[in-house]
Specification:
The complex is a heterodimer of chains A (391) and B (361).
Chain A (H helix, E strand, L loop, with lengths): L4 E8 L11 H15 L9 E5 L12 H4 L10 E4 L5 H14 L5 E9 L5 H4 L13 H17 L5 H13 L14 H6 L2 E3 L2 E2 L8 E10 H11 L4 E10 L13 H14 L4 H4 L2 E4 L6 H8 L8 H6 L25 H16 L13 E8 L4 E8 L4
Parallel strand pairs in A: 2-3, 2-4, 9-10
Antiparallel strand pairs in A: 1-7, 1-8, 4-7, 5-6, 8-11, 10-11
Chain B lengths: L13 E8 L11 H14 L10 E5 L10 H5 L11 E4 L3 H13 L5 E9 L5 H6 L14 H15 L4 H15 L13 H4 L4 E3 L2 E2 L8 E10 H7 L4 E10 L13 H10 L8 E3 L5 H11 L6 E2 L4 H4 L6 H15 L4 E8 L5 E8 L2
Parallel strand pairs in B: 2-3, 2-4, 9-10, 9-11
Antiparallel strand pairs in B: 1-7, 1-8, 4-7, 5-6, 8-12, 11-12
Helix pairs in contact in B: 3-12, 6-10
The chains are: A alpha/beta (391), B alpha/beta (361).
Chain lengths: 391, 361
């Protein structure tokens, strides 16, 4: 008895290293006001609010949604707070969408944010815990050995990651909301940047950003109303899926995690996808470190295992090179990384493309798009499919 | 099979069919969160003869600040063992809201059952300092107001209205701890008269020690099942006929602290007043908050309030709300009640509240 639902409002802040001009409330307020107005609504029209962000220590505020209730227009309404590590932005959009798909609400506001400059994410990720080995190197240090395993397994040449780093930064130049605008970006520039965690150079890593993303999810009735009021078409949700697997156990494949493959399979079943590369017009996928593009190309079934790097190398994922399956036209996580919002930005960008409102980074005639986010040590996945056509 | 009750919320009957909770203790220094959860998860599945592979969704509630590290829910998932990978989610909220998320998903009809759990220990840190970090980071948190002081402001405001007195707080505490004598999981239970309790010194005036909750380590789990599946797993499921939650502004000065407008609204949406209530399990960590909640929900004088002893008998942070739903459900299963209300709260001075109506057929 699942009801149709769609993205009917979109809002995001410009991502920056430090938004010293606003409080946390001021930051999220920018995104939610934009999303609500974009849907042709006021806060009085919103039935419920679903908030997502990564660990609270990234700002140093415990359960900050309580303090943000007023800024989010949530007073007197149901409000929920999701936290599923790096995948949280995607999971938050999914939880909000289920509030509509279940027939419980007509219009749900969902927002995700991170104001990394208020604290230190590297510290927050590395606090020593009893009987646990500390992750002193942060996320890049965790993922580098997995990337090396991928390179070994696939035989990918060493410059594939650098090509992703250049491609996504070239995309970012077309997105006014992106944090990093590097007009001189080149393979040489990436190679010349300092080596952080072999094989990841500084410029193959995501930035630390302040930023927020928001969407209004509407029922079929709300979508029709919004389209009439605003002239913007809804981005219909054709499928949503989440999967988790344990962090560590002998035999876990961290290069090509089962949870990611299962999540995609569930999603594609719901959305009727049989050949992802042919069936999608674009994808926004969580690539915080360059090499995760070829790895997720394989994990998401866009090619056979071991072939992901070949797509990247051939320019198949580049909007600028006219690739057949452009990935991360917004510049992706490599260009903007307000961690809690990074997953929602992936989902939001797919909706923007489906509405044909992505401006300079618009994929011509994008009719169906994939949004993906992952988190933790790549054991949490959230994904959705949005399309122009009603499901 | 005995049919299903009429629903106020949702369109698919979903019942609580199993509940387990850890012993509530002041300090469990020997186990981490995973080790505390393991026996509870085993019990909640064992009660109804299923395994993790039989549920369609898993949702948990916890907060990172209790352990002082990021992603505390990540490790906790090992208590379930999500291999092969499972559909799973987590809220940085009391487990009662994790139950709400699972209930929403069950409404859609793709899955028939879900596991909900929550955990949190007060002992690893100083809870008063930790909860101060839950406040507005610019104007409130720098003053480090502790939860007892904020609750005392609320209690004093209630006294000032003339609707309650310190003796009323003592009566609530005496009844709760006496009820807790019948609850083997309770942490703080005693049989003392309100007069005796009133001879205690103030902790933070007008709250004496008896009006405060204990500091508790604990965790809990619930299995939800929808439609016929509920009857396959439980003879008399506690069906959720109404569930709703609402939040108020964080700014204490902008709220009437002596009323709980969000509880009243959630209670109305959940249909509390549509029929008589036999029992109410209220998440009132401070004694005076029970008075505010009873008033907000419009509960009649004959409603049995928190027979488990409530949060005054054990207050495992992030689980105390979920436990209220579990405790209310046990009354339905046993036939002691036909219609029960469970309540969960979050935030300073009852900022956010969830109300759940449970009915047996």
């Amino acid at each position: 008895m699942s009801e149709r639902c769609a993205v009917i409002g979109i809002g995001q802040t410009v991502a920056k290293s430090k938004r010293e001009d606003v409080s946390i409330a001021g930051l999220v307020r920018e995104a939610v006001v934009m999303a609500v107005e974009d849907a042709g609504l006021t806060f009085a029209d919103i039935d419920a609010v679903v908030v997502g962000k990564a660990p609270d220590m990234f700002e140093g505020v415990m359960m900050p949604e309580l303090y943000l209730a007023g800024a989010l227009g949530a007073v007197g309404k149901p409000m929920m707070r999701v936290h599923t590590a790096g995948s949280v932005g995607g999971s938050t959009a999914i939880v909000a969408s289920h509030l509509v798909a279940s027939g419980i609400h007509d219009r749900v506001l969902t927002v995700a944010f991170e104001k990394q400059s208020d604290s230190d994410a590297m510290w927050a990720l590395s606090v020593p815990q009893p009987f646990s080995s500390p992750l002193l190197a942060g996320a890049g240090g965790y993922f580098a050995p997995i990337i090396r395993a991928y390179m070994h397994r696939s035989g990918a040449p060493r410059d594939v990651g650098m090509k992703v780093a250049v491609k996504d930064r070239l995309h970012a130049l077309k997105n006014p909301y992106a944090h990093l605008h590097l007009p001189d970006i080149s393979l040489q520039m990436v190679e010349d940047s300092i080596m952080l965690w072999d094989p990841l150079h500084y410029l193959e890593s995501c930035p630390s950003s302040d930023g927020a993303a928001a969407m209004v999810i509407g029922s079929e009735r709300a979508a029709a109303q919004a389209e009439t009021d605003t002239g913007r078409r809804p981005a219909w949700i054709h499928g949503m899926a989440m999967r988790s697997e344990p962090t560590m156990f002998a035999g876990r494949d961290q290069v090509n995690p089962q949870a990611g493959r299962d999540c995609a399979a569930d999603l594609y079943r719901q959305a009727g996808i049989s050949d992802p590369r042919a069936d999608f017009d674009m994808a926004e996928v969580y690539v915080p470190f360059s090499w995760y593009e070829p790895m997720w190309l394989e994990n998401l079934g866009f090619c056979a295992e071991g072939d992901g790097w070949k797509l990247t190398e051939a320019g198949a994922t580049s909007l600028i090179d006219g690739g057949d399956i452009p990935w991360n036209c917004s510049g992706g996580v490599l260009s903007s990384n307000p961690i809690g919002a990074s997953g929602m930005l992936r989902f939001l960008e797919t909706a923007l493309q489906i509405r044909g409102e992505a401006g300079e980074h618009q994929v011509p005639d994008a009719r169906r798009a994939l949004g993906q986010a992952y988190g933790g040590g790549s054991q949490f996945f959230s994904m959705w499919v949005v399309a122009v056509d009603k499901p | 099979m005995s049919g299903f009750p009429a629903l106020t919320s949702g369109h698919r009957p979903v019942g609580v069919v199993s509940f387990a909770q850890h012993d509530n203790v002041r300090r469990d220094g020997e186990h981490n969160d995973v080790e505390m959860l393991l026996p509870v998860i085993a019990e909640v599945f064992g009660n109804v003869g299923i395994t993790k592979d039989d549920v369609g969704f898993i949702c948990s509630g916890s907060t990172d600040y209790l352990v002082g590290g990021p992603f505390s829910f990540v490790g906790a998932l090992d208590a379930v063992g999500v291999w092969p990978p499972r559909a799973e989610s987590h809220v940085e909220m009391d487990g009662a809201w994790a139950l709400y998320e699972a209930w929403v998903l069950l409404q859609e009809g793709e899955i028939d059952s879900a596991l909900v759990y929550s955990f949190g220990r007060s002992s690893p840190g100083n809870l008063s300092e930790i909860l101060a970090l839950q406040l507005d980071p610019y104007y409130m948190a720098p003053l480090w107001p502790d939860p007892c002081s904020l609750a005392a402001l609320q209690a004093q405001a209630l006294i000032d209205t003339g609707r309650a007195s310190e003796a009323d707080f003592a009566a609530v505490a005496a009844r709760a701890r006496r009820s807790a004598l019948g609850n083997p999981k309770a942490q703080l239970a005693y049989d003392r008269s309100p007069e005796e309790l009133l001879r205690e010194d103030y902790e933070v005036a007008p709250l004496r020690r008896h009006a405060l909750p204990p500091l508790t380590d604990g965790c809990a789990a619930i299995v939800l099942a929808a439609g016929d599946r509920a009857y396959e797993l439980c003879e008399r499921p506690a069906f959720i006929t109404g569930i709703d939650h609402r939040v108020e502004t964080h700014a204490l000065g902008a709220r009437d602290l002596t009323r709980s407008a969000s509880t009243t609204l959630a209670g109305q949406k959940a249909g509390v007043g549509k029929a008589g209530v036999d029992v109410a399990e209220l998440h009132a960590p401070f004694a005076h908050q029970e008075l505010i909640l009873v008033d907000a929900l419009g509960l009649a004088d004959d409603v049995e309030v928190s027979p488990s002893g409530g949060a005054l008998a054990a207050n495992p942070i992030m689980s105390a709300g979920l436990i209220r739903i579990g405790e209310a459900s046990t009354r339905i299963w046993s036939g002691l009640a036909d219609r029960a209300v469970a309540h969960a709260t979050s935030g300073p001075c009852l900022q956010q509240n969830l109300v759940c109506v449970l009915e047996g057929v």
